[in-house]
Design goal:
mainly beta
Length: about 120
């Protein structure tokens, strides 16, 4: 099991930027695919972005392509989500998650709130 702690959320105006961080501990971070998900009020949690163990492969939800960038630093056991050109519809609690050998996201952080005002 890996423990995950997100940070970097906050209130920002539309068009602004935020950088989320997720610090991992407990297991070998580089063994895990890392993902970001979000959940808006009254909606189901949805996939945002994911990155392979070595950072070479990434994928994104269509709604955030060209605006968000996922990256990781295995030496710091941290995954990042750079969010640019934020829109009010990006408002949600953002979670990072880790997928191990089963390719299932079994470990989750507590979430960080992102609010985008219009």
């Amino acid at each position: 099991q890996v423990q995950l702690v997100e940070s970097g959320g906050g209130l920002v105006q539309a068009g602004g930027s935020l950088r989320l961080s997720c610090a991992a501990s407990g297991r070998t971070f580089s063994n895990y695919v890392m993902g970001w998900f979000r959940q808006a009020p009254g909606k189901e949690r949805e996939f945002v972005a994911a990155i392979s163990w070595n950072g070479i492969t990434t994928n994104y939800a269509d709604s955030v392509k060209e605006r968000f960038t996922i990256s990781r630093n295995n030496a710091k056991n941290t995954v990042y989500l750079q969010m640019n050109s934020l829109k009010p519809e990006d408002t949600a609690v953002y979670y990072c998650a880790a997928a191990g050998a089963t390719n299932e996201y079994n470990d989750w952080g507590q979430g960080t709130q992102v609010t985008v005002s219009s």
